[in-house]
Every structure is written in C-alpha cells, then in structure tokens.
Write a structure and sequence with these properties.
heterodimer, A: mainly beta, five-stranded mixed β-sheet, 4 helices, B: six-stranded mixed β-sheet
Chain lengths: 147, 860
Amino acid sequence: MSLRDYVTLRVGGQLFGVDAARVHDVFHPRGLTPVPLSRGEIAGVLNLRGRIVTAVCARRRLGLPPRPEGSPEPLAVGLEVHGDSYGLVIDSVDEVLKLDDEKFHAPPGNLPPRWAEIIVGVYQLEKELLIVLEPQTLLDAAHLKAA
Amino acid sequence: MTLLGRGVVYLLRLQATSKKTGTAVDDLIAEFLTETAESLEVVDAELVRFEANPSERKTLDNIFRLVHTVKGTCGFLGLSRLEAVAHAGETLLGRFRDGKLEVNADAVTLVLHSIDRIKVILAGLEGSGIEPEGDDHDLIAQLEAMAEGQAVDLSAVHAVEVPNRPIGSEIEPAELNLPAAAPTLKTGDIDPATGRALRPGEVSEADLEAAFAAAAGPEDEPKHLKAGDVDPATGRVLRPGEVSEAELEAAFAAAEAEVEAPATAPVVEAPKPAAPAPAPVAKKEAEPLPASMGGEDLAALNNTQSIRVSVDVLEGLMTLVSEMVLTRNQLLQISRNREDSAFATPLQRLSTLTGELQDSVMKTRMQPIGAAWKKLPRLVRDLSHELHKKIDLVMEGEATELDRQVLELIRDPLTHMVRNSADHGLETTEERIALGKPAVGTVKLAAFHEGGYIVIRISDNGKGLNTARIREKLVEKGLATRTELDTMSDQQVHRYIFAPGFSTAAKVTNLSGRGVGMDVVRTNIEQIGGQIDLNSIPGQGTTFTIKIPLTLAIVSALIVGAGGQKFAVPQTAVMELVRTGVTAEHKIERINEALVLRLRDKLLPLVQLGPTLQLEAAKTENPSFVMVIQVGERRYGLVVNDVLDTEEIVVKPLATVLRDVDVFSGATILGDGSVVLILDPNAMSERAGNMLEEKQAEENEGTVETTNDNRCAMLLFKAGSGAPKAVELEHITRLEHIEVSQIERMDGRAALQYRGKLMPILNVGDYNTLKDEGIQPLLVFTGEGYAMGLAVDEIVDVVEDRLQIELSADRPGVRGTAVVAGRACEIVDVDYYHLRGLAEHQRSPNSSGAGHSSSERAVA
C-alpha cells in the first residue's frame, strides 16, 4: 500500500485535490494587479514575498460561475510550472489527506473537455468524490490557450 | 599553455583524482573542451589573417602552437580521433612553417576543414563524454597529400556542419592572450607517440616538438630545469603517450610559468594590463613543488589577476543584488514617509552601498562585444570563397562592453546579418568592377555606447535594397496592398524585410535563406528591449542599426497611471513629457479616428494607453499627459492619465501564460510592494497601429491600382454635398478647429481673429459650409502677409496618392476630378481661393490692423 498526500480544496462546492508535494504555499491573493489583454483565466499578478506570482482563477479555468457576492475571501495555492510561480485561486482549503494509490481511478470518460485534460483521476472518498488536478496542464500556456 | 605543461597538469590531476570518482575525468574533459573551444576560435581567426598575409610569421607560429597544444592534450586524454586529425593538420602547418609549401586558399580551406572536424568531434565529446564514432581518413588523407605537395581535390572532403552553439563554458574569455611560454625540452625524452613508420611528408613527433620549441611564444622563459635534477622514478618502459617523471617536473614548471603569464585563463572581467611576471619570481616558483598540489591550487596561489567563475554563481549574485535593490527601494519609501526616523542616515549609506554593489556586480557581467564577433572573420572568408566575391570585413569597437546575457542573445542575429550583408548586400566582384566600384566589397561592423545603449551598425557598400522587388513581393505575399504601399516611403517599404514571412532571396544559397529571416532577427532583438532599423541607398549599400540596452536586469522607468492602474514605461524610450488637457497649451486633436498632438509645428500621432489596453475605467478619464516615445525612427505620443514617479526597477519576466500579451515586456515590484507591468513601447505602437490599420482596411475596401509617379500628400475633406474634396497638403499651412462663436460675421462675410490679424473665412464653392454652432474645421492657407481660412464640413483623412486629374472642371474653384485613395474627389483650385482671400482682405476695412479691439467683436 503506498500512500500519497493531497491538499484538498474546494472550488464551487466541488472537492479537488492537488499532490501536496507540488504545493509550495497557501496564501490570500491580495494586491492583485490585473493584466490587461490577458486571457480571462488570469486573475492578475501579485507580490508574494518578493516573487511575482501569476494568479489563475480556478473557477474561470474550470468554466464555473464566478464567486457569489459575500463569499469569504478566496485563497490561493502556490504552484510552480516550468519555473514560473503561479497561484491557483480557489474558494477554500480543506485539509491534507493521505490516500492510498490503489483507490485511485482514472477519470470517467464523460467529462467536458475543459475538465478532462486537467484531471488525472478520482478518489472515491466515503462522502464524496475527490478530483485530482494536474497543475501542469492546469496552468500550462498551451493548455490554457486551447481552453 | 604549452603542450607538456597542459598535458601534464591534466595527467597529474587525472592520476590524483581518477581513483576517487569517475566525475573527475569528466571535469577534466569539460575543462579541456572549454579551453580547446577557445583555442579553436582563435585558430579560426588567425588562419583567416594568415591567409590574407602569408608572410606574417608570427601568425603562423601562433596557429601552429595552438594546434599543437590541442593535439598534445588529446593525446594525454586518450582522445585518439582528435589527436589524429590535429596531428595531420599540424603536419601540414609544419610544412608551411618550413617554407616547403606555398600557402594558398585551398590549403587554408583544408586546415579550416580539419578545425571544423575537430569542433564536431568536440561537440560529440561534450554531449556523450566519449569521442563520437566517425571516419576521418578522407580528411587526413587530403591533409597528408597536401603536405606532400600533391594537388588536392577539396570536394573530396565534405565540409561538416559545425554546431552553432559555442562548445564548452558559456563564458567567453574577455581576451585570449597567446600562450606564453614554451619549454625547451629535450626531444629525445619522449617516445614517438604514433609508433608507426612515417609516411613521406609526414613529420615525426620529435620533429614537431622541435619545431614547436622553435616557435616559442613572445615571452621566452628561461630554462628552469636541468635534466639531471630528476631521476627517472619509474624505471620502466614508457607507454606511448606516457611521459617520464622528468618531463612531468619540467612540464610542471612550465605550467607554473604559464600561471604567471597574464590572462591565459579566460577571465570574466577584462584584466588590467598586467606587468610581465618578474623573472626572479618565476624562477622561485619553478622549484619543484609537491606533486599533490594540483594546477588549481597553483592557480589559486599565483593568479590574482583573474579567476574563472561559473555563470551560475554570477547569475545568482545578480539576482540577489536585484532583490537587494528592491528591498532598498522599499526601505527608502518607508523612510520618506517618516521624518523623524533615526534610520535615515544609515539607510542613505546603505542605499549608496547597494548602488555601488549593484554596479560592481553588473560589471562582472560585462564583456566586450568582440567576443560575439570572433567567428565572423572565418564566416566571411568562407562566404567570400563560396560566393566568389572579394569581401573585406572591418570591425570597429570590439572592446565595447555589454552584459553577458545580452551578448549571448545577439550573437546569432549578428552572425545572420553579416551573412546576409555579404550574401545579398554585396555584388559579385565582376558586377562591382562593371559598376566602377572597388572590386573588394566591404562589410563593416561597428559598436559604440550611446546613453544606456550599445549601438551596433552592420553596413555594406553593396547594391542597397531593391525597393521595387520588395514592393512586388509584399503584394505577392499579401503582406500589404498596393494602396497601402503607395502611401509608403521607400524607408517604410524597406522595413517590411523585418516582417514575418518575408524573404526576397531569389536564389536560396547554401549560406543564407535557410528560413531564418530578418523577422527572427528583429524578434530576437526586440525581445531584449532592443530596436533595429535600416537605411538603404541604392547603389551605395545598406546599413542596419541595432540599439540594445546595456543590461536587461535593471532599468530606469516612469510610473504612469491609466485606466485606474499603474504601469512602468522604460525611460530610455521616452523623449519628453507634454502636459495636455483643456487648460494646457497643447491640445489633443482628432483627424477622423486618429488622435494627434501638435508639437512644435509637427503632428504627433497619439496612442491612448487606457483604451488600447481595453481598460474600462479609461473611458471616464481625462488624460493629461502625452509621453513622446521614440521607437526606431517611429515617434508617437502615448496618452496617459497621470505620471506618478520615476523609479529604478528590476525587470522580472512574466510567466509563460502571459507571454502572448506582447505589450508587456515584464513586471516589477515597486517600492510600495505593488506589482506593476512594464510596457513595451515598441509592441504598444504596433498594437495601436494594427488597430488603426484594421479600421482603415474596413474603409478602404475596393482598392485601386495606381503607380508611383507624381505621388503627393493630399488632404481629403468634405464640404457641401457632392464628391469629397481634396487639396494638396503642401498648400495648407494649418488645420484649425475653431469655436463657431469666435467667428465674426459682417454683412455676409466671415472672419476670425487669428494670430493677431483678421483672417477672412471662405466657403467652399457655392455651398455655405460655415457652421452655425459647435466646432468649425478650417483649412488655413497663407500667402505673403495674409492668411485665409477655408471652412469645411469635415476633415476626412490625409493620404498619399498619385494626383492625376481626369475630368476637367466645370466651375470656378475646382481644378477637376481625380481618383484619390480609391475615391473620386474634386481637386480644389487653391489659387482661386487665394485670389478670393486677397480680395476679401482688400475689402475688409481693418485687414491690416493688428490686434483687433473688442468693439469689433461686439459688432459680430
């Protein structure tokens, strides 16, 4: 049995997981500078302890409706792709789960294309499904362009 | 370093370290690669020099020594393939030295081929750590045949494609001095390395050694060693390539002497001219040292002039200093807001020190541009042979320094452009003679500093660009329509050679036209914040001018506001700042969709920052500043809402997902911790230009074929019903937009107080084109001592077109009808209106008076 740590997070009510080894930090995306003429998924750039981080909105990336008014302040998960620092803006972070590789399933075939390419698999938790995201395809320029 | 000196140091270190780890050997090979690559570059350049001037003994000696060194080192490292090629090359060179063989172009080409072969093998070695498989017999046979004085068919040896990437370390030596000392070794000590019978014309190892010793460098070292000092320690028969203890010692001493010699090792910073090592010191150092001490220790002991630093360390240092500058800026900002701060003085000191540190670190990254030019003499020589053109390469300002990173980035574009100049720019020798030009064409490279930039010029004295051919090509490739082309000056047309997908090479030669066009060159240069432009004079040649910032890391920037957001604009692009707005002297005006600013009697096209970036908040803003921006020879005004500050900013690249937003070249963190995007003035003007062009393209549907003669700039305007009117722009002094209320009317006539005089305002033809309210557009014409205004309904556009009046006029004030920019227009007879204007002046009672009283206004 091999266990793997996942940071679990919520976007639009759905539970997602990202390989904990890939997550650098979790922070509040504050002081965002919007980038004019950029794609809709880009929330802006911000200064995270002297590094310039590009914030990507998970809701927009997944094609979900915008956060309703009055929701709590969003969080961001710090990820690194191709040497660039990104912050994936999400609704909230739940906990770190240790999950067994054997319970990992390939994603079902009927996902919308926007989702299919960024999901590596699904864990069947007791209460709900945990969708595992792949930061690489989630934030990669080529995939963003195609989306 | 000499053969034995270098070889033995390698060997010693090999012996000392190979037992411990396998990587030690790799390290040695890596070092060997770096140094050999450097030597080979020098050989390339020297050979070209030698060919031009075969009588120069020193050059040949130097080449000989370098090749010899390569060969020797290869032998020690067990690189047999390299050694064989180098040996054959050296043999041939030896024949030149002895004067037994005439130097000719074929021979030099052959030697260059063998250098290329060595480079290919080195590249393979670098990739895999072992010599790549391959057969060099063809080349060696040719070299040997040449050495024997036989005729050689060069085509039998296929030239190899040398990898473009420099082999070995990324650091280029600031200056490669010649290896200094040659040991005066007894040749009998060494075993013949080849161990086979000599072929005719071949030279024995011993002979080569002797020749080599004779070709001692400029600084002949005193003999340090007596042969008797060292006993043969091993007492066994030496294997080929192995050396005796005695020689190790001797070479060791030589190696030390080499360490004393200035700048044999590549250096990061250009060394100050070092005094030659004083002889006594050299002698003392030459005492045999414990063998456990490697060459590196020696270098550490003796060489204080320069050291080899890995690029990673430098880059790391640079990043740290950049961060430090940012933190300093933040601290300064905080301190500025607190007057009582006891930190102020130490902070000021810290700030100064940080600045100095930054300068010093920047300096370590500076390298002379000559490092990027080293390969060019060889390139031009090969081109000269292949194209059968006589080409002279002139290089000026090689010592001009610029950032290492920038240097790496312009190396390929420069090579490409020199190749282009030689291939496409210069005529063949026959053509040149026929044209009465000097038979030898010149390609000139010049570099110099200008402000925070380095300017590089690549010029040829060839035929210049073929403007007609470019125009044809543009239409053919759909890059521009004929109408567009007709409005363009030759210079604008020439600039299209930088457009993607453009290549006029009628004949794709082996050398250029490999699908890498000038657009790639331009992209490369613009990526590093540089600009490229060209100037071509038919029959006299073409000059490309490249302007590149000295460093990419830190730039001085203006922080501006637009659309509720802050942006940084590199200060180097900003020529001046102009305040505009309702109350200001300079007002923003409109010609159709385009905004312009009158600046010292010139119209400056404007680009609005906020709207161009599609910022919502910009719609309600009232822009108050125009930044006059110069990009190449283009000049435009960037309209911003506010200019907030100037700041030294550290440029950080944007994440990959943002690279397609081309108007930003990066981002930075300001003193207050916020992130601002850095505008790319070049991309900005292009984007704005595209937006305008798109608009115009929509309007200009249905284009008309025109030719180039009789072209003139014309102003299109509307006045009354009927066809649009046009008038040659040269007749018009000014365009004015006047509040109707300012126009004074007196019994059917209208006039305006204009520059202290009363200027009559005329209607166009029989129409009443004077408005009753709002803004009245006026065309102002001036004659001797008077001015008049022509009231029009709307100024439509300024176009450049051929003026050919096709229908004659049927009424006064109209010269006829012509097709202008695809539309039939009435051409205004300016003389007619001048006469009417003069008549008005004479009728007007106050026409000569300056400064009209307010009472007259009351009449109106």
